[in-house]
Amino acid sequence: MQLTDPETNPVRRLGRPRHLLAVAATAGMLLAACGSPPTSGDQEAGGRDPGTQADAESLADLCPLDALEEATGPIDVDLWYGGLGGDTQTTMEEMATAFNASQDQIVVSANNQGRSYEEVLRKYEGASSTPAQLPQVIYLEDTALGQMVDKGQVLPAQACMEADDYDITQILPTARTAFSVDGTLYPGYMNVSTPVLYYNKVIFAKAGLDPENPPETLEEIRAAAQAIKDAGLAVKPFSFKVNRWFMENWLSGVGIDSVNNDNGRTAAPTEATFDTPEAVEILTILKEMNDDGLLNPFASTEGDIDHFLALLPPDGGIPQSAMLVETSTASTTIASVVSGQLTAAEAGIDFDESIVDREAIVPGGAPYPGLESGGKVNAGGGAFFILNTSDPAQQAASWKFLQFMLQPENARTWHMRGGYLPIVKTVLDDDEVKTFWSDTMAGVIVHPAVEQLRNADPDQAGPLIGPYVPFTDALQGAMEKVLLSGADPATELTAAQEKANKAFADYNGE
Fold first, then answer.
1. In this model, does residue 328 exceed pLDDT 50?
2. What is the pLDDT of residue 489?
3. Which of 328, 338, 401, 432 maximizes the CB count within 10 A of its CB?
4. pLDDT attached to residue 295
5. Domain of residue 313, CATH code
6. For position 24, what pLDDT does the model report?
């Protein structure tokens, strides 16, 4: 799919259900829900049924900016979020406070709905049939994009961008494509992240590995893990949360789509396509590492961070692990915990930090190791959606808050304090940001992820999936059976693809 030029395609085609991928969890934080879309909500403003925009002369007509000009008195905007902790949660709360102080017409209340994206989505689904109970803005994982658009309760933020003359090309093309449906950008701001490799430079050096030359492929991960284990520096060197996000990125890195129809981007996916020789190879490598005591696998349990804690060396002992792949957003929390600037309680981590030998760990960040090469990733993370279920003035006010976050200085704050990757182009050239990358632990750790996103192909976005929960249950279930129970990779992938295909048939009414 080619990135649509917003200047030449003001009214988009809306098709059958199609849907998106995801991204995973930050330390102590972070999927989407399933089921057919409900009928509540303004289908004209958000649904993807054919012809729903036929009465609009332009996309901009869908945004009720005039209602904001006509409103009297303060306009309240309720924002639901979750899956944030530590500096990221503080950034969210302070962003709302700063916006409220910047003007006197709109009051944004940022309300934490739980420790994970899943909790927020469940609360949304419980209230979606009663629009009066819904917030004006909701922050959800990128996996929810397809389902949210299918529900018909989202006002496309691009409509407000066009109505308000915001230059959408200021947003990185990779981020725009990942969060667009049929060429229309739906969220007004995106907290983007990618998977990366975290590793302990101290252990690498002691094992005779170059701490400035981390593994770039899964085979190199295996070789490094073997060297670390042989040196007696970690029990099971590679900590791995068994999550389908990593498999999706590994496959896309070698040109394999997880679902058909161009990863669900040109038409609704009707079948899964992940059961390939490449997927079998990936799971076989991981299974062999597990059999050899090189892999430290953890089930992908909501809110669980044991895979992070495995890298913390106890005082006078060796850690369980020395490497893991996870979200780039964890960089800020990792740096703050290791440097002692953030307590375990503040980070939302339940462990006795007094036993940690902080001098025994120097965290490093590196591009995501792939099957053939490193740094091949899709943009994921979280997205701020404007719901069309409130009155027009509140919808317009919601856009004004998201426009505030798009201002370069606020997008910079999301990066430097919140840990998310820059999506506003000017932030990449900001001198303060460049100093952050070179002179701070968090900046050094996260910089490889910044370059991954900058270099990613905007026409190779992750899968757009509506029934993401059953899809995840199928793919992730196969991974867990292989890595937690020793099952055969080929057998489990075939069975998982059959389950996913049934989920697509059910969702698409076939």
1. yes
2. 98
3. 328
4. 98
5. 3.40.190.10
6. 27
Model confidence at 272: pLDDT above 90 = yes
8 Å CB contact between 462 and 21: yes
User: Any residues with CB less than 8 A from the CB of 261 and at least 6 apart, and which?
Assistant: 18, 267, 268, 269, 270
Do 85 and 115 touch, CB atoms closer than 8 A? yes
- Both 333 and 419 in one domain: the answer is no
The confidence score (pLDDT) of residue 72 equals 87
Residue 188, token pair as written in the block: 């007004």
- Residue ending a domain, among 411, 436, 455, is 455
Q: Do residues 185 and 157 share a domain?
A: yes
* 51 found inside a domain: yes
Is there a domain that residue 435 lies in?
yes
The token pair that represents 347 in the structure block: 């980070």
State pLDDT tens for residues 122-135.
999 999 999 999 99
Could you tell me if 350 and 491 lie in one domain?
A: yes
Please tell me the distance from the alpha carbon of residue 172 to that of residue 197, in angstroms, as a whole number. Answer: 23
Q: Does residue 156 lie in a domain region?
A: yes
Highest mean pLDDT, choosing among 3-12, 18-27, 298-307, 422-431: 422-431
Same domain, 222 and 359: yes
Residue 22 clears pLDDT 70, i.e. is over it: no
Do residues 265 and 18 make contact, with C-beta atoms less than 8 angstroms apart?
yes
What ranges make up the beta strands (E) of 272-417? 295-299, 323-327, 363-366, 380-387
Are residues 362 and 449 located together in one domain of the fold?
no
Residue among 238, 205, 244, 235 at smallest CA distance from 324: 238
Residues 367 and 374: beta-carbon distance below 8 Å: yes
Q: In which domain, by residue range, is 74 found?
A: 43-193+379-455
Average pLDDT for residues 114-122, to the nearest whole number?
A: 90
pTM for the whole structure: 0.84
428 & 488 share domain: no
Inter-residue contact 10 to 168 (CB < 8 Å) = no
Amino acid at 237: P
Give me the pLDDT at residue 360, please.
65
Contacts with 43 (C-beta within 8 Å, 6 or more apart), sequence order: 49, 52, 152
Task: Single out the residue of 157, 160, 183 nearest to residue 60, CA to CA.
Answer: 160
* Side chain identity, residue 194: T
The answer to whether position 438 is within a domain reads: yes
- Pair 67, 211 in one domain: no
Q: For 137-166, what is each residue's pLDDT tens digit?
A: 999 999 999 889 888 999 999 999 999 999
Q: What is the mean pLDDT of the chain?
A: 85
Domain-ending residue, one of 455, 477, 497: 455
Q: Which of 222, 371, 207 is nearest to 293 (CA)?
A: 222
Total domain count, the chain: 2
Q: Residues 247, 395: one domain?
A: no
Is the separation of the CB atoms in 153 and 386 below 8 Å? no
